[in-house]
């Protein structure tokens, strides 16, 4: 008997396709408008996971033909100095995207720093101006992880309209903006968190389940509605040192229609959407847009 298991939603391959499209559009922007997309990433301190993420972002941007720079500041950097660095990048016309890697070391107040990023360069979509634009349906940068979830489904031909998206996790980076993006796609959205009663019951009603809590294998196989799309945002280090998601992958795969692996699922899509946002920002500075550069969305 052949076992029917969920098909893999291959974020790695899809992200490579997005990067290729971004590279072609960037080349056109450079040729037709003389503008090279510029991405600046600020990394404060020495968190090993953040160092890997930042290195990957820098490499992706360079390979797409962007001008990429990583600004490394010591863990003891004063808040005023970090804000001064953000302001310097705000004023630099060659920089179209600014990302302050999170989490910041102790002593630095994220809530005081992130809003200082110019909204036009806020390619993370985290400033209050970007959040307001998202909630009110105005143009603006959308956070990369939830937009990576939407783009992965779009490129796989998976419909969101009318479907029930259940999100586990209420973070600023993923859970909260995912609700808005799901609504933008005409889905019905439910958000669950650590105080939610009957989490399993909510998950079992999901046509699309987004797990973004940072708890290894929290979501069990029998919480998955048969045929559901499972998007696992979690990146946790297992006891054996390997990366594991927030979903019990092997068990969930028995019920899911489609499921993202960890690694190779949402992570690469997040980075790809950072390039899309930076390209959009560069295009706007040149008086054009992604559509005119041949990038559909
Ligand atoms: N740390 C983990 N993910 C992210 C992200 O998407 N943006 C920022 N700024 N920091 C992160």
CATH class of the largest domain: Alpha Beta
| CATH fold-level assignment of the largest domain | Rossmann fold
The first-to-last residue Cα distance is: 41 Å
Radius of gyration: 19 Å
CATH superfamily of the largest domain: NAD(P)-binding Rossmann-like Domain
**Strand order in space, largest sheet:** 1-11-8-7-5-6
The overall pLDDT average reads 96
> Which architecture of the largest domain would the CATH scheme give at its second level?
3-Layer(aba) Sandwich
Whole-number total of structural domains = 2
Number of strands: 11
What keyword list fits this structure?
single chain, alpha/beta, globular, Rossmann fold, binds guanine, six-stranded parallel beta sheet, 40% helix, 297 residues
List the helices and strands and how they pair.
Layout: E1 7-8, H1 11-33, E2 38-44, H2 48-63, E3 67-73, H3 79-91, E4 97-100, H4 110-113, H5 128-136, H6 144-155, E5 164-168, H7 175-184, E6 188-192, H8 199-204, E7 208-211, E8 229-232, E9 236-237, E10 243-244, H9 249-253, E11 258-259, H10 266-285
Parallel strand pairs: 1-11, 2-3, 2-4, 5-6, 5-7, 7-8, 8-11
Antiparallel strand pairs: 9-10
């Amino acid at each position: 008997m052949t076992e029917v298991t969920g098909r893999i939603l291959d974020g790695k391959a899809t992200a490579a396709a997005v990067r290729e499209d971004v590279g072609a559009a960037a080349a056109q922007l450079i040729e037709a408008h003389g503008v090279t997309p510029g991405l600046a990433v600020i990394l404060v301190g020495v968190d090993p996971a953040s160092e890997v993420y930042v290195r990957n972002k820098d490499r992706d941007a360079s390979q797409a033909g962007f001008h990429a720079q990583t600004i490394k500041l010591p863990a003891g950097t004063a808040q005023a100095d970090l804000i001064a660095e953000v302001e310097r990048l705000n004023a630099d016309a060659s920089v179209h995207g600014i990302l302050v890697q999170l989490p910041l070391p102790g002593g630095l107040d994220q809530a005081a720093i992130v809003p200082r990023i110019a909204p036009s360069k806020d390619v993370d979509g985290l400033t209050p101006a970007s959040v307001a634009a998202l909630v009110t349906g105005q143009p603006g940068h959308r956070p990369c992880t939830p937009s990576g979830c939407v783009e992965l489904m779009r490129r796989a031909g998976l419909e969101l309209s009318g479907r029930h998206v259940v999100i586990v996790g209420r973070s600023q980076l993923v859970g909260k903006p995912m609700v808005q993006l799901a609504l933008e796609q005409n889905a019905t959205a439910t958000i669950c968190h650590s105080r939610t009663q009957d989490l399993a019951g909510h998950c079992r009603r999901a046509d699309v389940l987004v797990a973004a809590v940072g708890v290894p294998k929290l979501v069990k196989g029998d919480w998955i509605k048969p045929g559901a799309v499972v998007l696992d945002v979690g990146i946790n280090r297992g006891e054996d040192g390997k990366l594991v998601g927030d979903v019990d992958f092997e068990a969930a795969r028995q019920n899911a229609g489609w499921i993202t692996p960890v690694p190779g699922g949402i992570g690469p899509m997040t980075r790809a959407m950072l390039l899309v946002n930076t390209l959009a920002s560069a295009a706007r500075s040149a008086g054009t847009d992604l559509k005119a550069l041949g990038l559909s969305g």
